[in-house]
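Re: the multi-chain job from yesterday

Posting the exact lines I submitted so nobody has to dig through the queue logs.
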Amino acid sequence: MDRLRIGIIGLGWFGEIHAETIAGVANLELAALCTRTPERLAEMGEKFGVKKLYRDYHDMLADPNIDAVSICTMWDQHREPAIAALKAGKHVFLEKPIASTVEDGLAITEASKSAKGILYIGHIVRFNPRYRMAKQAIDEGRIGKIVALSSRRNIPAAWTPTILDKIGPIVGDAIHDTDIMLWFTGQRIVSAYAQTVDVRGLKHPDIGQTMYRFADGASATLETVWCMPEKTPFDIDERMSIIGTEGIIHVQDTFPNLGIVDGDRLHSPDTTYWPMFEGVRGGALRDEFTYFATCALDGKEVTIGTPEDATAALEATLAAEESARTGNVVRIG
Amino acid sequence: MDRLRIGIIGLGWFGEIHAETIAGVANLELAALCTRTPERLAEMGEKFGVKKLYRDYHDMLADPNIDAVSICTMWDQHREPAIAALKAGKHVFLEKPIASTVEDGLAITEASKSAKGILYIGHIVRFNPRYRMAKQAIDEGRIGKIVALSSRRNIPAAWTPTILDKIGPIVGDAIHDTDIMLWFTGQRIVSAYAQTVDVRGLKHPDIGQTMYRFADGASATLETVWCMPEKTPFDIDERMSIIGTEGIIHVQDTFPNLGIVDGDRLHSPDTTYWPMFEGVRGGALRDEFTYFATCALDGKEVTIGTPEDATAALEATLAAEESARTGNVVRIG
Amino acid sequence: MDRLRIGIIGLGWFGEIHAETIAGVANLELAALCTRTPERLAEMGEKFGVKKLYRDYHDMLADPNIDAVSICTMWDQHREPAIAALKAGKHVFLEKPIASTVEDGLAITEASKSAKGILYIGHIVRFNPRYRMAKQAIDEGRIGKIVALSSRRNIPAAWTPTILDKIGPIVGDAIHDTDIMLWFTGQRIVSAYAQTVDVRGLKHPDIGQTMYRFADGASATLETVWCMPEKTPFDIDERMSIIGTEGIIHVQDTFPNLGIVDGDRLHSPDTTYWPMFEGVRGGALRDEFTYFATCALDGKEVTIGTPEDATAALEATLAAEESARTGNVVRIG
Amino acid sequence: MDRLRIGIIGLGWFGEIHAETIAGVANLELAALCTRTPERLAEMGEKFGVKKLYRDYHDMLADPNIDAVSICTMWDQHREPAIAALKAGKHVFLEKPIASTVEDGLAITEASKSAKGILYIGHIVRFNPRYRMAKQAIDEGRIGKIVALSSRRNIPAAWTPTILDKIGPIVGDAIHDTDIMLWFTGQRIVSAYAQTVDVRGLKHPDIGQTMYRFADGASATLETVWCMPEKTPFDIDERMSIIGTEGIIHVQDTFPNLGIVDGDRLHSPDTTYWPMFEGVRGGALRDEFTYFATCALDGKEVTIGTPEDATAALEATLAAEESARTGNVVRIG
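And the result, structure tokens for all chains:
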């Protein structure tokens, strides 16, 4: 088998982006789609030229000609399809966060232990080449021991009203930086303190500021603003600094990298995560799918995006949200 | 009187920088110096061509031909000389922090109420033109209501071992950003949470990460790393972002502003605060002294660097330090 | 005499900026104004509280209570007032370019030789602290011998239609970078090649790209775009790189230095040259006037902004404009 | 056929990078290697686990189980292997510049017309996502008509002594920006003027500064410095600005994108072109090979990296080099 036949479960905006990305991955074939809404299913089937269309994911999992699934359902609806897919012997690409509770995360992890297929959790930032190269530098000892970190991952207000009905910025976005910080330090997080600000009165607050303490004493702050004003140039204002005893690493994925001034304003579009060229998406998302497909096809162990790492990141961000709700520092583990 | 005759009390490294700056201020005349160490006093007297040299500041204050003093003693030795100078009718330029305790800050403030001279507290960042222009934009309503802020003020490890015996990075440096945030928001700070990291085992920890809550719900994080590694290009890695409901302001005083690659490495020297050209210092410190001299000579009220503002910034940073020591959130006021 | 009583000749937009700046210079007193238009003269007199108002500069020069003049007339109307002012014994601050022809520049220079007052040509960029610090680094030998330079000095289209009726971007703006490059290299320019682009059909082309060869073989490119589109964030997109055999210097006076996103777009206003705070202008223009006043009052020789340097910069930029007109490389000297 | 079996002709440093990249392309199989030096051939064969090793490329071309070749010989040794490979029916990935003379470029182009296989010229910058997105914005009319461009592509001195024995910075590197500018404007270049600086006395000068005029009047400057000093943070200091009548685009592939301060200095390594992670290279080079393989396997026409475009870029850069040698403006076409 040279190409993995993959189906997508959940066709919201990110499920569609998965499809647009899979089209550019040589060892993947987009073979099936699943969503509950018939109109959306028909529309997406036509757009991607996919014949196998399902309204119930169990039917997709029952198809022996589907090798793998990507799961893009809502984050609190991950447990059932993920475990069912693993039990059906499929390879599973599960979007982050792994789940909405640590308990669900552990159950999914457990299910993956005895599964025939691989399980990969979509922590896409690990495929941003800046962070990968940073990780290499850290592993080579070039910055010594990490003592402090700070991150920002801010997005425009226009993008978030719908998302903020489902998930807040700490679990929704700071989880990326939490995962990266755990990866970089190799430490556990032992406490979380966070403050949120509710700007627009939506279900979740628009802004989260989080502080972690790591087991070895390192300290971190994480900023996630989901209400950058209309005229911000940044699709993502994303930065991280890693302070070591012997060095520092700075990452920044914004202007001046790329800036387009047009009749409207300066735009600094993302070119890293899922840029689209000629109808197909590339960037880190394609690299992630390539990694997933290659692990599955070649029988290689998944070492990036493991459910254990994903659950640890989930646990820390949930603790931060609890801290923001209660006003107290939350100890972990 | 066209020029204010000024004396400096305290001739550590920053007292010397005061002297190098006063030399370039047209309406100031450096007329006297005071420090306890005779050798240092003689050396500085010769360097600046100053004849009136004192080992006891009371003697300087007794001189009727001295109009003003700048006080650069240790931060916990501010109360006595400041109050004595005010009582002696001198104009007083007092370095920040106003004092080492809120009680001292209030006593100095109180003494200034009945004084003949003016009292200015050296919160130099208010004379950084980026922050001044940001303040103008905020006051014009261009970014709406401020909902979140974040700042960084990091300096090289090589500069701090001596300072860290006297003061830590939160009260020592985050107080700048605290003052600016209070100025920008026009709000009180109601709670502080902070974490410190002790990297080198000096008297104070090297790193502080602080989080504030403002009375109207705005939230802020402040980073102060006093151990940037040897090869960092930055004299100061200084940044602030102010998130408003209608706009955002970004300030950054580092490379690419100015970068000098020489045989050693990339350097990004400060050109904003007290750059020295041909033996005289300019920048924000000169603007600060010009403001001080102009207020004193023209009888204008001091509205920047008031003791009330300085005491509020002190109170918040001391609360942050208490939080870092105890691990608890500290409520203020 | 503690303060120099100064008059301004020419009250266009930049004459007004001179006035707004002089107000913040302690050793200058704005004592007189001169322009041909009575309404403008009255309006400016009222705005700045100046009593001595002249429509003919000869009358101002005849006043023994005027010590100095700043000349802001059109660049091709510099020769007469400058020489007259020097002959009248006044100190002269003459805006750049020194003149519109090399012949005029030489005549002004000649007149300054026998004058009682000093002559300073307003090459303001020499008071930008980034370039001053760069010059120090170069003089200290930190980047070795300069082998190549490149610069950009671009401004918004909205600012230039009126200016483009009077002067083009090479003589108008690249002259700044030409002067700086001559200062940094200590070399003569031996040839110029330039291309212009006429975008809006105004009297002068909107864009100039210039290339110089220096006597020692160093090479330089200079970009001046006077038609940055409406939504550009930059007041000035100003950059210079200096390549040496042992090092490199980069200067950039734009975002991320300061960025203000408001309801309109991202703005990156200039805070270096003449930022206005509370009605008074500071920055490099104030430093320039302070330098001028201090040289005049203290009898110090003018070493920055000499007419010789200003004429050399004029000669090179005029050669570049000739090259752009003829399509040929123009040899100098 | 699902995977293209590819051989590499020429195993210098870049041939090896090709091999390290092909290893990560799902629809390519590295099947053969060819170089004249037996030791190098054996070493590379072992490193990449390739069994088919040739010292004469004709032998590789005779193998019916080789579908494609990448040609990494010296730029003046492109014509013969490229034409031979096309005649042998192979798909050809030919490194840029297409050749060392326009005549050779035309001959290779001609050979590709009747060939069974596709011909792709490795203009890698077209796969940098910043430029691709810029091209999209230009094609959408977002910046209006392009009136001026400027670029920089500078690399460290330490990398270039060997290369400078073979090729200079204008044809060697400015050809990238030349190709991109031709792509962006859709215009011909009608004249070139260039200046070079010889810093180290190697076979070719270290620095090139080039100016182009486009057929529609647009003007461009291109900087290529191949002697950035030892301590420069940049692997590549790469920037381009595109000035349109309605907008501007800025591209910059350097710090602050990624900066690593270690015990040595600040490093800003390239993460765009061929970053290596776990022994395999990704980035634009992988995207280029993926594009090549996909065109070849799916029978799609090559529209990026055509020999016509590559020859036009070669012609312009050769004209610039002639200008630098003669001191005259060189007209093209």
